[in-house]
Amino acid sequence: MPRLAHRFSALVTRFMGAIIIACSALALWRPGLFAWVAPHVAPLLGVIMFGMGMTLRWEDFSHVFLRPRDIVLGLAAQFGCMPLLAFLLCRLFRLPPDLAMGVILVGAAPGGTASNVLTFIARGDVPYSVALTAVATFLSLGLMPLLTWLLGGVWVPVDVWGLFLSIVNIVLLPVLLGLTAHRFCRPLTQKALPFLPLLSSLVITLVVAGIIAVNAERILHAEASVFLVVIVHNLLGLALGYILARAWNLGESRGRALCLEVGTQNSGLATALALTHFSPTSAIAGALFSVWQNISGALLSNYFHTRPLGAATTKEQA
């Protein structure tokens, strides 16, 4: 049974982009099928974060101590490139305030858990990816409200304390509970692990479809600029992550991990915060980013998978 679940999860993960596109199109065509999901976005993301915590061990954070330079550089790329790119693109394309706030939230978010799966497909450094995601997720408690206030406050007033409490409830508590479950209920968590990628994929699909359903009318009448901003933001993040990794001599395997980590945002978290603290319109960017990044991420990781790592892989092992 676990083997069958693993194969099915791998199949769903591989075609995640296509599944999300299909459900998103259905949500646009028949919003009523998914509109019920929107009020439950935050707890659904908590389920994903709990599952992420169950896959982690405290030892996964050893990268922070063994290779602090690589982690610090990765975090600098994550919380430097994406928020600034979001701000500049919003200015360049002159997005309305609510849409701009949604893009800023996406840019200020930590890397998404999907980056770990994509890194695995791309034959990148998975432990490095997991460590970056985990540390960035915890740092987002302080950095995400701060960055949103500094960059997004230009358009819309930001409740920094409210954002902080929401991130604690959606991210920190579920991840800590998952880590605790892994530590003290290991037999049960081991049985659940094969089903977690499938559960995460289905929940993410539901969240994206739900957000699109409640914003169907706005999306259908949205200006092309917001679509362009989402696509350019993601592609520039992927490119800059890879370029910076090469410039910092992280090696090919770790470079692929950083590329996907920087370009793949926790857009679900950004969407939940937009719905809670701003407006449904602010959630459009997160929903669109969720769809697009799964398409671009799947294509890129599959491309990387076909390319040899070469001798460059030894650099990050030194």
Automatic annotation (TrEMBL):
It comes from the Bacteria. It is found in: Membrane. This is Sodium transporter. One of its GO terms (cellular component) is membrane. Keywords: Membrane, Transmembrane, Transmembrane helix. It holds the Pfam family SBF. Its main location: membrane. PANTHER family: P3 PROTEIN-RELATED, SODIUM-BILE ACID COTRANSPORTER. InterPro entries: BilAc:Na_symport/Acr3, Bilac:Na_transpt, Na+/solute_symporter_sf. The chain crosses the membrane at residues 12-29, 41-59, 71-94, 100-121, 128-155, 161-181, 193-214, 226-245. It is a multi-pass membrane protein. It comes from Desulfovibrio fairfieldensis.
